[in-house]
Every structure is written in C-alpha cells, then in structure tokens.
Design a protein that fits this description.
286 residues; mainly alpha; two-stranded antiparallel ribbon; 10 helices; 2 strands; 47% helix
C-alpha cells in the first residue's frame, strides 16, 4: 500500500494519518518493527510472523523454550535455567530482528522460573537477567524486568501452516510460539486476544480516515470509516470473544479452574506495583 496516499486521493490531511505514514516509513527504513508495529491495515500486529528460532549462538534458549511446558509441569524449570550459560545480547551478538523473540523467550522463561512454585519467590539468575536487561534496553523500554503484553500476545504466535499471514489471524490457524503451561486454556485464552487485535487491525486506518473526514468536513468519508469500525467490533463480539468458552463440549473449551491454576499466575509481575500484561494492556482497549 502506498503510504503517501492510503488515506484518500490527495494524500494525508489529519495528524493521525501522518503519524501512521511516519511510523511505516520509519519501520521500513530500520528494517524491523522493534519500536512498535503500526499500520492502517494490520493495526498493532507485526507484518511478518514472529521468528521461530535464534541464530546458532542462542540455540540453548531455543531448546529450553521448546521444553518449557514439560519443565513447568514437572517443576524442573529452576534446575534447567540453572544450567544455562550467561550469554550477552549486545548489538554485535544478537541481531535487531531477533530482539522481539528474545523478549518473549527470556520473559516467558523468567516468569515460569519465578512462578513454578507459589511457596517462594527466588532471585532470577544472571543467565536470564543479564541478557533480558540488555534486550529490553535495546527495545527502548524501562529498566524494570517485565514480560509485556507485546511479548506475551502480539509476538507470541506461529501459523500452524507456515506461509504468509492471512488478513485475519484466527485461533484455529495458530499455535503459541512459546507456550508455558502448554494446555488448551493457555492457547485459547492468549490467541483469542491476538485474534481480536487482528480483527481490529483495519480500525487503526479507519480512525485516521475519520479524522481526515472531520478535517475536510466530508460526512461520506466519516460514515465509511465508522462503518469499518462498527463491523470490526461486531465481529469481535460475535465471533472472537465467544471462543473463550466454558462449555465442556466446545472446541475451544477453557476450563475456568484449570485456567486459574495454570495460566492466570504466569504473567503476574515479580513485584507489587509493576504493570503486567493483563488484558487491559491490549491496544484495542485504548
């Protein structure tokens, strides 16, 4: 899509439209979306599927991430993490394109390490804190070690059939890139949120076109933009949200007690007062 004229023939008119153009140009220039994905069609989702693996230097992180559900189930996360080497994640070692995967993998391992047992809150070892701190710094985030909503949801998915991502990411077509509990409750609960954000992708461009319409006093353009927003929100209510289904015979059944015991504690921040990746952190809420 031509970012100079996506809004309407004649180019961008509103501040919102210019922000979208500026972000897209910046991401193209950088060659990645580490500052944040934003586009008029995919909204807050990255244009490319998240990376499935690291370069060879960090293969040990890939292996532990693949074992995480079994380690979490068997209460052996801490011993496995204790055997990790301390790797650095500076610009000369970890490519920019691998930073989002590193934030997801290291954050998920860290939370599994801490929440493996509710009886104690151990200090994270340097094999996690050192590279994780570097990764978050390079992503321009605060120094607090936090698994963000971006790490847990927006960059934590993989297509079941590899290829170009479809226009709408659906739960049925996806798996978690880095599962921790490794059960149906985790997969459906997280990926439903991803589907909601995907369905609302066109809302971002529609909001900018609505602002365009107000600037140029074009009621027809405003009506078209509001119709796009309405249709997206209706599809979320009628399709996506219903997939988190407590009925035992549902294909996307989420058993409430199992969810509360295995999934709910995982993303809780390590210290009180730190913002965690709750559903209210979804950009669609704003």
């Amino acid at each position: 899509m031509d970012t100079d004229s996506w809004s309407r023939p004649g180019g961008c008119r509103s501040p919102a439209a210019w922000v979208l153009v500026d972000v897209e140009r910046t991401n193209v220039r950088l060659g990645h979306e580490n500052r944040g994905a934003l586009s008029p069609m995919t909204g807050f989702l990255p244009r490319q599927s998240p990376q499935r693996s690291f370069s060879r230097r960090y293969a040990v992180w890939d292996r532990l991430a693949a074992q995480l559900p079994a380690l979490y189930r068997d209460l052996t996360v801490r011993s496995a993490v204790g055997a990790l080497p301390v790797l650095t994640a500076g610009p000369d070692e970890l490519p920019e394109q691998e930073l989002p995967r590193a934030a997801t993998v290291l954050g998920s391992i860290a939370h599994a390490y801490v929440h493996q047992s509710p009886d104690s809150a151990p200090r994270l070892p340097a094999s996690i804190t050192d590279p994780w701190t570097q990764v978050l710094h390079r992503l321009g985030r605060p120094a607090e070690l936090v698994l963000s909503y971006q790490d847990l949801i927006l960059n934590n998915w993989v297509l079941r059939r590899p290829g170009k991502p479809p226009s709408v990411l659906r739960v049925a077509d996806l798996d978690l890139l880095v599962p921790t509990a490794g059960n149906q409750e985790e997969r459906v609960f997280y990926l439903t949120q991803l589907e909601i954000i995907s369905r609302c992708g066109p809302v971002v461009g529609a909001v900018a076109r609505a602002q365009d319409a107000v600037v140029v006093r074009d009621p027809d353009l405003l009506r078209e933009a509001l119709a796009v927003i309405e249709q997206a929100l209706l599809s979320v209510n009628r399709v996506s949200l219903r997939q988190i289904d407590a009925r035992a015979d549902a294909v996307t059944h989420v058993e409430p007690v199992r969810w509360a015991k295995t999934v709910a504690p995982l993303a809780v921040p390590f210290r009180p007062g730190v913002l965690g990746p709750s559903g209210t952190a979804s950009p669609i809420i704003n």
